[in-house]
Amino acid sequence: MVWIKICGITNLADAETATAFGANALGFVFAPSKRKVEPDTARQIIKALPPEVEKIGVFVNEEVARVKEIANYCGLTGLQLHGEESPDYCSYFRNYDVIKAFRVSNYIDWQSIKPYVVNQCINKILLDTYVPQQLGGTGKTFPWEIVGEQEWEVPVIIAGGLNAGNAALAVRLGKPFGVDVASGVEKEPGKKDPVKLKAFIEKARGLEK
Ligand SMILES: O=C(O)c1ccccc1N[C@@H]1O[C@H](COP(=O)(O)O)[C@@H](O)[C@H]1O
Question: Name one Pfam family in it (predicted).
């Protein structure tokens, strides 16, 4: 069954709704974003969530000490490093599930990803759509078939522009370990739409009636 992360959680109601519909992981953005959440808020939400739900902090080129401080304070279980973090940087977080994001246009630059895999400093790869001057949450897709054409040595997550209308195709073409969505299940930035959330999870998992 495909692993699903719902990103850009800013309030408990959305976190509980996504969890009830079967999300495996929730994402909390601590980088500059329309979905940015304060550590105090994230901590309160995370405290109320069941242990089996993964709590992933999203960071972009943040200082190592600050990432560790927020992760510890909030009770994060994983880190999504969405900037230009190096393999050495990633290896500072051995106690966390480390997801390294790489931005993709119409091909995958395996040479830039390989050092992270060879050094075993990450647990998962996330492929998000390259949009100049935007760090994430772009709402734009890339050709998912380029993921499915390759053998991966670590679990791969597809992100970028996913929604209930395209999730099933992304999973069929890309054959990923998981999918991640932020803007495609929102009413407005930082507020999720329960109807879109439910439909996304059902479509990604092929469970729709
Ligand atoms: O969601 C954000 O605002 C964000 C900001 C900075 C870095 C990453 C961010 N989110 C990640 O972006 C991708 C794609 O999002 P979308 O579904 O296209 O809106 C996803 O991996 C989010 O985790």
Answer: PRAI
* Residue 89 included in any domain: yes
Task: Specify the ligand 1 atom closest to the Cα of 189.
Answer: 3
pLDDT in tens, 140-167: 999 999 999 988 989 999 999 999 999 9
Instruction: Kindly report the protein residue whose alpha carbon is nearest to atom 5 of ligand 1.
Output: 136
Q: How many percent of the chain have pLDDT more than 90?
A: 93
- Tally of domains within the chain: 1
Residue labelled with tokens 């931005």: 103
We report the CATH number of the domain holding residue 151 as 3.20.20.70
Task: Report the distance separating Cα 99 and Cα 121, nearest Å.
Answer: 10
Q: Which value, to the nearest 10 degrees, does the dihedral of the CA atoms of residues 104, 189, 70, 23 take?
A: -70
ipTM entry: 0.98
Q: Is 139 in the pocket of ligand 1 (CB under 6 A)?
A: yes
